[in-house]
Amino acid sequence: MSWNNLRKNQKGLPNDEMLADLYALSRKAKVAEQTERPTYFAKPYYAGKFAQLTFITTGCKLGQCSFCSYGGNEKEITPEIVHEEMGRFSSEILSKFLFGKPTDYVLFDALGSIFDPNEFSNECLDALFEDCDKLVRRAKTIKSLDFETHYQTLGTLDENGEFLESYALKKLVEFKNSHPEISTTVIELGFESANKEIRDNLLFKPIDDEKYKKAIDYLHQNGIEVFVNVMANMPFLTKQEQIDTSYESLLKVLDNENGFGAENVCLFPLNIRKNTFYSHVLDCVNKKEKQNKDFQRPVWLDEENSIWSMVATLKKVVDSGHEDLLDKINIAWFGGREVYSNDVFPKDWEQIYDDLMMFRFNLSGDNSRKNIVNRLAETDGYKSYMESVKKEKQTSLSHRERAEYLHDFLEESSPMVAQSEIPVINM
Ligand code: SF4
Fold first, then answer.
1. Is the pLDDT confidence value at 57 over 60?
2. Which of 26, 50, 251, 337 could bond 45 through an S-S bridge, CB–CB 3.0 to 4.6 Å?
3. Is the domain covering 15-421 a CATH 3.30.450.20 domain?
4. Which residue owns the Cα nearest ligand 1 atom 1?
């Protein structure tokens, strides 16, 4: 059996019901992550120049994305906890005890959306901005503030289609306007794919494109920069489709005229994380492989594919004459993660990993991004990956039909979660 021999949804479920099953299962997979976790989690990067504080909240209330594990934690974040954590974070930045070098870029995020009042209350947000004010006044090296959140938490559209900002966004704009010493204020948003069919049917991340674009326009009008996440190694696509769709998504996100005109995009490959819908799929695939030796493992479950799919997307950016965009494309989540796949790393992985890390530093000369991409494309691993791209069989199946197959496959392997158990939230 191969996913190229897909069958129609056997039960003949109406589309919405079929998707509701899958979305519910994805929510269920995250709920399984509910464990007692610390509320404080700070990370330094680039020898401390970039510092990140993640609030370990109760988890994302807005999505059921198939690749994401942000489900939950039982402990509610309170303003007191925010003050406590900001106190610790600030003293670590100020003393450079943890971070080594003066921090100039700070990212705040949560296990979902820092601007979602159902996850991080308005009182918590007030406490955060109060302490942020103290931090930037004392740590004069901080020049950039970044907040990661879901686009819906930025605001909504009124009956005339005008964008109305949320409480959180209003606070951010006020904060920005009263702190001219902060040269860059950033909102980081998930998007993953410019293809709505892929988002709806395979990523379970419905997005209203018009609302999304209007939220970004509003951010730009208020001098706030936008970083958008785009995925490589997209599930249930052929390798060629994976490259093409990630490439097109990068162009759309960065295009100033017909796209979002984002300042930056982060390209990250799908890796299988524990407690996600796709880790459940992986368990079912492993079971199936044991039962049926002819079963063909989907490519996106391989660590190696996740890396080459990302590199091939970057190579396409270079080869199509868009190399000027490379400065706006960062990469993340490659290798070294706690992956749940079959752990196949490319040959010469250490050199490849070093090059990928260097890509992030955006150096010049031999280590310019373009040279790094071209160097990676000369490796044996990349060449044999591209050979396999040329040989693979393509399919004309729609993304909805692939979701139907997925539904059938999962139902065969384990019972579906009752839809009534976990409501689907429309985004
Ligand atoms: S909306 Fe974001 S945080 Fe929520 S499930 Fe999707 S990717 Fe995860």
1. yes
2. 50
3. no
4. 63
